[in-house]
Specification:
Structural class: alpha+beta
Largest sheet: 4 strands, mixed
Amino acid sequence: MAREIFTDEHEAFRDMVRSFIAKEITPYHEQWERDGIVSREVWLAAGRQGLLGIEVPEEYGGGGIADYRYYVVLNEELARANVHGPGFAVHNDINGSYLLRLCSEEQKRRWLPGYCSGELITAIAMTEPSAGSDLQGIKTTAVRDGDDYVLNGSKTFISNGILADLVIVVAKTDPSAGARGVSLLMVERGMEGFERGRNLDKVGMHAQDTAELFFDNVRVPKANLLGEEGMGFIYLMQNLARERLSIGATAQAGAEAAFEQTLEYCKTREAFGRPIGRFQHNRFTLAEMKTELTVTRSFTDECILKESRGELSAEEAAMLKYWNTELLKRVVDRCVQLHGGYGYMTEYPIAKAYQDVRIQTIFGGTTEIMKEIIGRSLGV
């Protein structure tokens, strides 16, 4: 089915993104996988190409295009190329929304130009060793002391954590106030007491740096408070829908890419004198995947349009994130099976995808949390 949500301008942008990936990412990605981190140069190259801060007004160095579909195109092409190293989606889709909506004018002028150029790489630090999906259970604190907050605590599983120059840190400024006592602080590289732990050794997505962060009496100026004190939990809830849409849309693109690669393999790989795709079981498996992907694509594109209009609900985003990431996991698993022994060889893209996709049903809120959000919306 032809997609109807993109214009000629979006497709021209897609061509540019594909060229960028082919030139600036694909040739280096295997080395980045071995290194466990991408080079800062790819971030600067993305900034020069206008791939960072597309929706940021031009006066701050951005593209000035408030159309979420451009981010979707970028994320889809990265997923289709199976290059997960550059954490552009965290920077663009997630953190950009916080910065644009919550920064004061002074903060925008201080941070957004570097954010758009790739000189300031961003991360967001929510998860802690003892608090993942339950954000109200965080223990990191920020206590007012004059014109500063004194920040103490630790975070883990932070994407872009090693490279990040600017980190949105979720902390309790009033531990007695529950959800109303959570605030967002902007912690900058070089602040005394801000330390990074190890670059975590993950099952997949090896090129994307994922770190532990430690805060030991870090003095964060009040000028680095993002939005209003005590409003952090509300801000998080408001922005999580877009994060989950980003994950879900990327999962859809990744599943489609895995299917397309496997379909071609089934047409050329022979067993017992004929292509393996001609065996009824395999043909039925391909038919099932194609149907599931086609049906899911319609809902995914509808959610993308709703986000572009500012109408996407938390429940719809949860449905998309839950369904698409679980579908990605199922599709890739079946594609590995269709590849046979070659599907277990890391020289084949499907084997790498098998490693990379497992986290999708966990980060951004687990499948179980997505079902809980959906269930609550039903009034039961």
